[in-house]
């Protein structure tokens, strides 16, 4: 982070300490004899007090966080405190994000990308939720814990409504053949002709996000059954399920790069097979298949002899090269030598590094059988047209596109990795300390503002706190989406779905642990309903399609005010809370 940020943080803390010292000087000077000069200074310093309303009036006592951080009971004073503490929480989240990215550059995906990054990303929210109910009496914790639920719901809703829709707008490209074309944006704000496309892994992430609401349903069961006896037990069961899903999700994230590489290798292999079959069909003197659909052995033998240039009865790697010419391997980021190696591995069952005629016929027969049985086979495809080969080749090309292959991206080497690791660790420590220290004062400021204005603390935390804890993540996602590529859009939306999943698992686990350990009452039916509606609607919608026209962003934007109105109506009109 830049020195300007550190300097600004220092200035804010200096102002805080000055405000505190000013308060103590004023209160301690009450018993002194005025000389006419110092009393005037005292009156000037009195103006600086945070806990004095601009309209005047008697001051109400408030409890300082840690015994020295300033507090106030006035609305304007708490607005200032919320802004300052919120900015500090934003800094903490930014430090955590920067440190995580540096570690990712050094150590790569796997444990770092799959385990630490999601946990660290959700750490500020988890801290705020924890401090909202960990201190004070049970009654006070029951009152303050609504701040944690407001943050949990507000963070989830904001990420997949406002931020989701914004990323869709800034990342829009022209849609052709149901796919957004990279770096092509000529149709303006066409609601149907412009939008974004994502890869298949992003659809999987959306599915996981939709499934992550399961613990909410478990905890909500007693309310649905109008039972009061099993509420505490349902919280415990929901906590266990939430922790189990959290561990499972982290394990999946750790092994996801390996799963992706295996899936990509399989698709590339299928693309080579379909391309070779097309080449064989064009070179065949007759049809590859008989009228009954069986391989035409006579034609295959002639093909083998035509490819066997030295007529030694075997096909070498050099001779197999003729089969991969014209397949357009660059479409799937595959080198010609790798394609030949795949062919040799499939044909050479005797492992003698050459292909006999029997091995060639057996290999082509197996490929034709697989091609006919693929989902790409069209109704009119048959032994006369062999159209299923074209269908399979096109399917594998599209499937590779939506898998988001990044093998052609250059990987930059990190200079001086030792100092980079030290910098990353320091950023992570600083971000963690800031989030831990200023979470409690921020929750207190929200509660005090709620008391001063009679606005429910849930709505304040629903709207304001996610801006502090998710701003850096939101800005990063929007900037990345503006690159207008399938890869950048896929990464952007995957991170949004992953952040919501961690909210629904890690942050909910912290929340449920608080409710269970402190014996609090679970009374958040309307909030849970909002989370369920938004997560399930967006999750299911994004799991069944990979291209999102611009009109989908309008629906996402509408979900945000709908969520606020729904909670208000259910709690204050129908008395759910």
From TrEMBL:
Residues 295-330, 335-370 form the EF-hand domain. This is EF-hand domain-containing protein. Belongs to the Ca(2+):cation antiporter (CaCA) (TC 2.A.19) family. PROSITE patterns: EF_HAND_1, EF_HAND_2. GO terms for molecular function: calcium ion binding; calcium:proton antiporter activity. GO terms for cellular component: plasma membrane; vacuolar membrane. PANTHER family: SODIUM_CALCIUM EXCHANGER MEMBRANE REGION DOMAIN-CONTAINING PROTEIN (PTHR31503:SF36), VACUOLAR CALCIUM ION TRANSPORTER (PTHR31503). The chain crosses the membrane at residues 75-95, 102-123, 143-170, 233-255, 420-439, 459-481, 493-518, 524-544, 551-570. It is found in: Cell membrane. InterPro entries: CaH_exchang, EF-hand-dom_pair, EF_Hand_1_Ca_BS, EF_hand_dom, NaCa_Exmemb, NCX_ion-bd_dom_sf. It is a multi-pass membrane protein. Residues 1-22 form the signal peptide. GO terms for biological process: intracellular calcium ion homeostasis; sodium ion transport. Its main location: membrane. Coiled coil: none annotated. Keywords: Antiport, Calcium, Calcium transport, Cell membrane, Ion transport, Membrane, Metal-binding, Repeat, Signal, Sodium, Sodium transport, Stress response, Transmembrane, Transmembrane helix, Transport.
